[in-house]
Amino acid sequence: MPKRIQTIRGFRDILPQEAQKWWYVERTARDVFSLFGFREVKLPILEQTALFARSIGETTDIVEKEMYSFQDKGGDNVSLRPEATASIVRMFIQHSLYQQPLAAKLFTIGPMFRRERPQKGRYRQFYQIDAEMFGFERPLADAEMIFMLTTILNQLKVAEYDLHLNSLGCPQCRQAFKEALKRFLEDKHQKLCPDCQRRRLLNPLRVFDCKSEGCKEVLKEAPLITQYLCQDCKTHFESLKGYLEAFGIAYLLDPYLVRGLDYYTRTIFEVTIPGIGAQSAVAGGGRYDNLIEVLGGRSTPAIGFAIGMDRLLPCVPDPDKEARPIFLALLGEEAVKIGLKWVQFLRKVGIWTEIDYRLGSLKSQLNRANHLKAKFCLIIGEDEIKKGKAILRDMDTKEQLNVALEPNSEIIEKLKGGKN
Ligand code: AMP
Asked: What is the pTM of this model?
């Protein structure tokens, strides 16, 4: 027997049961996005490596260790996208979307790729729901973004989550903080892990990303960014907190939160769900007022977030209303022909309709209907054709009634009512 081929480590299949919930989560997010006036964009999965190196940062874990980068057959350096923000910004600049009001609020949904160590909740191909808002500097935009994120979580009835909030300041106040952090870390060099010893010199803020207990211990005494915020950044952060309170959104101030990407300025936030394991962050985001310029565009403030679908899904209760099909039990070729008219008619009015392609006995067709959790079964056999009436059977109550043999709208309301 030839050796079976399996998925690559860290990659996985999404089977129909999970895919159905996936679809429900996406649909809910899409509904919320349209309430907030966000419009969908679709982006390539492969981009030039330089896009991510310049935006996410050369010395971040993502760019240093985790990207799927390679030279394609033409010799171009390309990478599978590890996140969506850089690509949306590239698109925004490439198509000069600055002045188009409908291009200010965008979302995209799709797979991302990072070669991290696989574990529960961490995959090498994972899916994000990503939203970005361009052109607004004031903290009201930040509050709206966070409100939109919590609206999605609430609509999905995610029971318990924490919203962590911090401000990373602007390049000016961050510079002062970086200097202070460098000074603080200077004589702690020996206590840091080899990665952080390097980070200390190249990009000291990234020390806060470190998971090692030794480094976390050292950082307990470290200066905090919030102590270094300039007046403008402080006011921005205070106004945001005020708006969140007005929205009734609870948050936890977390001065250690830095998030693993270099492009953030001012507001950053992360949503965690307690009790789901080590990978408890289900969403994260922040403001990136300088990124558009860094990537060669016109200075434009912006803010965004990404929800990790793989982690969120297990925390979303199953939707109450599961769609159920109507099943057509057809006995004999003539019945099949009438049945096919029903199939066309019912699907046209938006009703999920199933038939048994094997055309087995009535018993086996009803079994199949039960397997599919059909709410109703429309039975047509020789007798029914003779009488000119089909039988509509309620699969829960087993009640049966006679209905017209040929498709007609009389029973639509009844069937639609049986959807849930
Ligand atoms: P980030 O793009 O790093 O800000 O991540 C945003 C969200 O994406 C995180 O909060 C996670 O929920 C999700 N995420 C990031 N990396 C992974 C991964 N390797 N596997 C599954 N989900 C991930």
From this structure: 0.88
